[in-house]
């Protein structure tokens, strides 16, 4: 499968007036430089121990895989390109990943897998903490090589910014020992109560054979990082992050979602002192106490409009509506159809930038998923000076 010539290399803008600088400690300081993903080449993944796709009504019943429909890819790319251009018009530098042939079979000495995935959601793979960009381990075999889409850009950043730290977490082996055998066959037969019990104990598809985490399971609050234990992040992944960032406080958190996957549609920092919380997935009591102790307001998100109409081939929940992207602490990009959440945020004093983005969801997420901060103004702050419980 060929990649259009225009997408074989990342795009950038002139840095004559503002030299390249990697710096971001949170998701609300004024944005200067970001990555926006591409839908090009995305595939419905081949089944594997960690994940199964089942879209019988859309032509991909369980066990089948292959390229996303061309018309869907074109529409998603148009919305991604328009989003990138809107950011550029606001003076923000935008880089893009280099797509690969995601239909190809991939191999390591331990396994062979029949497909890759895509490069729409860079937030899953990369996280910027201060002057460091860290590549996550990833826990799907189909996504093991996805970091290669960002290597040309990361190499350029490393060459242009002498203060940048470029780090990669240990690449996992992802042998059968990393997964609970036949997890999905029995998990999906459990009651909601039993599933939530498994989530609370973090007894899910991943074993503790090796550190595993997706970058999108990490929420950044300056000196504090909150790491969700989920279907793609295990306790050893949290432990590795604690050791890797010894000068920060790295907290493990759990969800009341039966299928926890990425934190950025559940626990959404909006600005200092204010966080938006998905009303369907209540945070545990100690986490709430920690935020309240430090004078943070936790606002429950209103029910999303997307509850009423999800796109074809989408594996995202309706709470993708809360997957928003700050330009600064007063300005937030929201999917244009999510008028309820937009009205809620407006009542909290935010300027809303409506962005057409519904077509992008089936390619891996929303506005936050599709981006990675490279530079935001500001430095590391301690937003939680008072300690409590396990935090």
UniProtKB/TrEMBL annotation:
Give the active-site positions.
214, 262, 369
Q: Which UniProt keywords apply?
A: Kinase, Serine/threonine-protein kinase, Transferase
What are its GO biological-process terms?
creatine biosynthetic process
Q: Does the keyword Kinase apply?
A: yes
KW Kinase (keyword) present: yes
Q: Which SUPFAM superfamilies match?
A: Pentein
Give GO MF terms, alphabetically.
glycine amidinotransferase activity; protein serine/threonine kinase activity
- PANTHER family noted in UniProt: GLYCINE AMIDINOTRANSFERASE, MITOCHONDRIAL
Describe the family membership recorded for this protein in Swiss-Prot or TrEMBL: Belongs to the amidinotransferase family.
Q: What is this protein called?
A: Serine/threonine protein kinase
